[in-house]
Amino acid sequence: MNFLLATSLYLLAANVINCSITTQYYQRLIKQGITEALRYKLPTSNNEFKQGVESNNIEEYGEFDFVIVGAGSAGSVLATRLSEIDDFSILLLEAGGEEDDFSQIPALWSFNQFSEKNWGYYSTPQKQSCLGMNNRQCSVPRGKLLGGTSSINTLMYSRGNCRDYDKWSQLGNCRWSCKDVLPYFKKSENCQIRGDENYHGKRGFWNVEYTGPDSPLFQIFLNGSVD
Ligand SMILES: *[C@@H]1O[C@H](CO)[C@@H](O)[C@H](O)[C@H]1NC(C)=O
């Protein structure tokens, strides 16, 4: 429900601010994308991914110093960093395609999840959570495209919980404690939000900022929601 409100607000904002041909393009794009998403059936078996794939057909791509499986957040960063060394040849493999104009609208995240851009996994039936879901199974979207899940997760940024890192470290994974990984979070981040500088960096590639564009309608909407 919250999401639907947010989407209609978004469309309203787009209409008010821009009446150009671009708006019409996006109106058509959004309408068509939503229609397709509502019809889309998520795969129920991994066998469905093999359809149209000729398993005996082996192609020669040559030799590489590094083969990275999956161009999600981690794989893409790894490939970028390795490519800084000119002599390295790198093969980055990705099962999905690229983002398109529809998937680049963060507010449409729930519709992107009903598309080939999502592997389509569900949790096992839960005892204590997902109580409102069919069979008590939550959807666990995993991106199947360049950028991986970061391309379909509404551009939300959240770090893992310190206690998880510390627990992994205690279990014997040295250098995974919160204190150990923090410098890498800071190094990767280009933080535009008001945050404690002890925890945030400003010189990385990873832009973190408040949502935009800053529409006057947002505050009006929030004010209108106060009872
Ligand atoms: C929203 O409510 C606050 C507090 O009442 C008020 O100061 C502000 O002017 C309101 N903003 C808009 C855009 O209505």
TrEMBL record:
Residue spans making up a coiled coil are none
Query: What does the record give under GO molecular function?
Result: flavin adenine dinucleotide binding; oxidoreductase activity, acting on CH-OH group of donors
Designated name of the protein: Glucose-methanol-choline oxidoreductase N-terminal domain-containing protein
Homology family? Belongs to the GMC oxidoreductase family.
Which lineage do the record's taxonomy fields give for this organism? Eukaryota, Metazoa, Ecdysozoa, Arthropoda, Hexapoda
- Signal peptide (from-to): 1-19
Q: Which UniProt keywords apply?
A: FAD, Flavoprotein, Signal
Q: Which residues form the Glucose-methanol-choline oxidoreductase N-terminal domain?
A: 143-166
- Report the source organism: Zophobas morio
- Phosphoprotein as a keyword of this entry, yes or no, is no
Q: Which domain of life is it from?
A: Eukaryota
Presence of the UniProt keyword Flavoprotein in the record: yes
